[in-house]
Design brief:
The complex is a heterodimer of chains A (about 280) and B (about 270). In chain A, about 80% of the residues lie in helices and about 0% in strands. Chain A is built from 13 helices and no strands. With about 280 residues, chain A is an all-alpha fold. With about 270 residues, chain B is mainly alpha-helical. Chain B has two domains: about 100 residues, Tetratricopeptide repeat domain (Serine Threonine Protein Phosphatase 5, Tetratricopeptide repeat); about 90 residues. In chain B, about 75% of the residues lie in helices and about 0% in strands. The two termini of chain B are about 45 Å apart. Classes of the chains: A mainly alpha (about 280), B mainly alpha (about 270). At the A-B interface, helix 1 and helix 2 of A face helix 1, helix 2 and helix 3 of B.
Chain lengths: ~280, ~270
Amino acid sequence: MQIKLLFILILLTSVRLNGQLHLHEILLKASQFYHAEKYFEAITECKRLIYFDSEKLHSSTAYEIMGDSYKEAGFLSEAVQSYNQAEIFTFDKEVIYNIKIKKIKLNILRRTTSNAHRLLNELDSLFDYTKSEEVHYWRGWTYIFEDNWRFASLEFAKINSLHELKNFCEKVDNEKYSVTFAKTISAILPGSGQIYSGNYLNGIISLGWNVLWGYLSIKAFNADRIFDGVMITSLLWLRFYNGNISNSKKSVIEKNQEITNNALYYLQNQYKGKKP
Amino acid sequence: MYRTILLLIFVSIKLLSQEGYYSVSSRISFADYLLCNRDYEFAINEYNQIDKLESNDTIKFKLAFSYFKNGEFESAKIHFDKINNILSVQSKEYSEAIKFLINEPENYLTPQTIVGKKLVALNSLYQTNKSEDDLSTIFTKDDFIEIDGWLNSHNRINEKSILLAGIYSSLLPGLGKIYSGQTGDGITAFVVTSLLSYLSYDNFKNNHDFRGYLFGSLAGLFYAGNIYGSVVSAHQFNLKVKLDREDGFFSFLKLKNYFLTEPSFIQCR
């Protein structure tokens, strides 16, 4: 009787172990496909594993690999959903932390920076100070993608006052032009806002038009041609004057965009540290 | 004794290995799960693998069905046309629905299935408001009521006459625009044209000929532009009505799943 019971026990154990072994094989396969950059196949294997893993022992890992594969394939929303699922199926604090970091990186890339900030705040409250450096680092990157280089620089400074990215962000912030300043000087002297942002020709042309229509308006009023004066002032001079102010804003925004793009290009191609 | 136990364990493991998660039955179960989860792209991949290992009409149908649901109508049709067995009637129905979807409905060939007949009858009803066939024999009573309701709601909006819009605007600036549904634009056109005409009249009256001509020509420009704008508005209105009807027609068909029924082996729990 005892031998029979032992036999059944061994058989059941072997069947269970065999099942687990096969599930592990699927996980290995998914991982291999992912590393071979065969993302469709990797996702298929993860889905297979999730379907057959009735005890949900490998679900978190499978969802995580699925999220990584979706991210690499450019399906960022699907990647976030997979990471969300990966988080549900684990109790391991370290795994949860890593998944949250992956989600933050995805949100930075998707420019859904408010989500990234929310997740960073969660990390701040859930994990101790040992992780704070990484939290500051990704918060800095979040600010970069919000085009807020000054705040980004302040975040990197919290890690190290000589941090490479702190200096870089500071430099970018200093290079950028002020929209308010450009608009103000353009209101005082038409064309000066464009000149300030480096659009010399545009600035000179703008100044020329304003001088011409201003001169004709004043001349008309001086000669008591009130109707002509009102018409030239309202339809021509004011139009060019307002156009000059909005043009100076546009010019600064374009210039700032160029600076941001160059900075992001540098970060993408030449910066050696961790990137989203 | 122990040798027997070890042998039994070995045999059971060996048997289970062969029947693992990549066996045909497991693959089918996994592919069905993907299909039910609307993961059509992955289901297509899995059914294709199964089709290579063990082909039958059910697998072919499921593969074609996944292509159909994924919007890959050409591939779906190729696979539906391959089925020649007990499922051939349903496959033909899907095939005719695809033919209806990928061809211009006007060029649709004579239908052989009830689904095809329904689609052709409905298309003729949509295009001409009348059908050559007796609809009550083709559609069920519930379908008929639904179609009637849909047609009535979509036929309520009449198209605008381009000629009338032009004439209205030439008689009273802005009226053509109001007729075409652009009330705000119509009122603006009326106010601007009237104001410019008045300024022109007033200047001529006070012997300011230059200003009179200036405002007069501006008023003329606005008047002509308003007539042209009314004609364009009426045209745009008609285009929108046409697009809305077309959109509504195909949405209705999609909602009714093109009158196609899903076989019992596909219906998910």
